[in-house]
Write a structure and sequence with these properties.
Layout: E1 2-3, E2 10-14, E3 31-36, H1 38-54, E4 58-63, H2 73-85, E5 93-98, H3 100-112, E6 118-123, H4 126-132, E7 137-142, E8 145-152, E9 157-160, H5 170-187, H6 189-197, H7 203-219, H8 234-243, H9 251-268, H10 274-286, H11 299-308, E10 319-324, E11 327-331, H12 336-348
Bound molecules: nicotinamide-adenine-dinucleotide and zinc ion.
């Protein structure tokens, strides 16, 4: 899949991790820093390192502890120190080997070290392969909120090795499927129907998702308008994640609930049919994602979070709704009563 952006286009390729060297056109002795975490490096880092060393690159590794809480400026600082001490220049290279946490952090470090050094993404979670590694959004978290510090900075290459998903916990795989289903809902009716037939993860499925995201990013790299449709299900999803202090749901699980809520709202304002609402719920269920809320949420807290959300423009909550499967509508006129109803729908059906 090619991502066409004016002066920084790049390819998303599907191949084995140890084949990466074939796609590099860097001179021998180039320094390469592989950023990963201990578990992923143990599983996939050694083979990558070996294949690059074999091609006479100077390969370094730096593992960061796993988990969202380490996606911080503090961890970035440690990586800057490592790069400076090892005299990395702008001609050298960073490789992010891991999920979205490693990818976002490495991309952010790459965007700022010496005002920008080349980086490559090797995403190893389903979420990273279909979403976070594509599009060039990089970020770290701040105490006051997630992803508040960051940059738009595109990688020079994304390499997807589907077989890395074999070791991914089932729950993480399902969470990634939420974003896969999202692409069908927002952009491609046929793809959605195919998913209803099978949710098996093939290179075709991954490429389709990357293609849909790439086309949207190409038209709106910096999220001025169109890119917003990628936030389908995220307005309420994000509020649910935050309301439970990011301790209860994986991102994709909250997005699954958010997609149902947004579809419900769409139906209530006369957009999508009830039949299609039920198809969406059924597919989410098939992906082993939650379709209902089973605890007592605090609506006022959820409302506050939504009001504070950085994606809100001009005081009104912007909702990505759907007219029919494959077709989105942006609306700023959704009442709080309807938001409340959609949460009740998630709780009581
Ligand atoms: N930049 C973007 O556009 C974008 C989009 C969506 C999400 N994100 C970010 O992505 C992050 C979430 O990413 P994620 O869902 O990949 O989570 P993650 O990076 O935390 O990875 C999830 C877990 O799976 C483990 N893991 C990764 N690959 C594995 C493998 N192949 N086998 C076994 N275990 C493996 C990790 O060690 C980790 O414990 C969040 O920080 C979110 O903000 C960014
Ligand atoms: Zn998401």
């Amino acid at each position: 899949v090619k991502v066409n952006l004016k002066d920084h286009s790049y390819h998303i390729i599907f191949d084995r991790i140890d084949q990466l060297d074939q796609y590099l056109n860097k001179p021998q002795k180039t320094k390469i820093l592989i950023i990963s975490n201990p578990k992923i490096f143990r599983l996939y880092g050694q083979q990558l390192k070996r294949s690059l060393k074999y091609k006479k690159y100077q390969v370094f590794e730096k593992n960061i502890p796993a988990g969202e809480i380490h996606k911080t400026l503090n961890t970035a600082e440690q990586l800057y120190s490592f790069l400076i001490k090892n005299r990395f220049t702008r001609r050298d290279l960073i490789i992010a080997l891991g999920g979205g946490v490693v990818g976002d952090l490495s991309g952010f470090v790459a965007s700022t070290y010496l005002r920008g050094i080349e980086y490559i993404q090797i995403p190893t979670t389903l979420l990273a392969q279909v979403d976070s590694s594509v599009g060039g959004k990089t970020a770290v978290n701040h105490q006051l909120g997630k992803n508040l510090i960051g940059a738009f900075y595109q990688p020079s290459l994304v390499l997807i090795d589907r077989t890395t998903l074999n070791t991914l916990p089932k729950r993480e795989l399902s969470a990634g499927l939420a974003e896969v289903i999202k692409y069908g809902i927002i952009k491609d009716k046929r793809f959605f129907s195919k998913l209803e037939e099978s949710l098996a993860i093939t290179n075709n499925l991954l490429a389709k998702c990357c293609f849909i995201k790439a086309k949207i990013v190409e038209k709106d790299e910096k999220e001025n308008n169109l890119r917003m449709i990628l936030n389908f299900g995220h307005t309420i999803g994000h509020a649910l994640e935050a309301e439970t202090n990011y301790q209860y749901y994986l991102h994709g699980e909250a997005v699954a609930l958010g997609m149902i809520a947004a579809t419900y709202i769409s139906n209530q304002v006369g957009l999508i049919t009830e039949i299609d609402l039920n198809r969406i719920i059924a597919l989410i269920k098939k992906a082993k994602l939650p379709t209902s809320i089973n605890y007592d949420y605090d609506f006022h807290k959820i409302k506050k979070i939504m009001e504070k959300d950085k994606k809100i423009s001009s005081g009104q909550v912007t909702f990505v709704l759907i007219d029919s499967i494959g077709k989105t509508v942006i609306r700023n006129d959704i009442s709080w009563q309807l938001v409340k109803d959609s949460l009740r729908f998630l709780k009581y059906g």
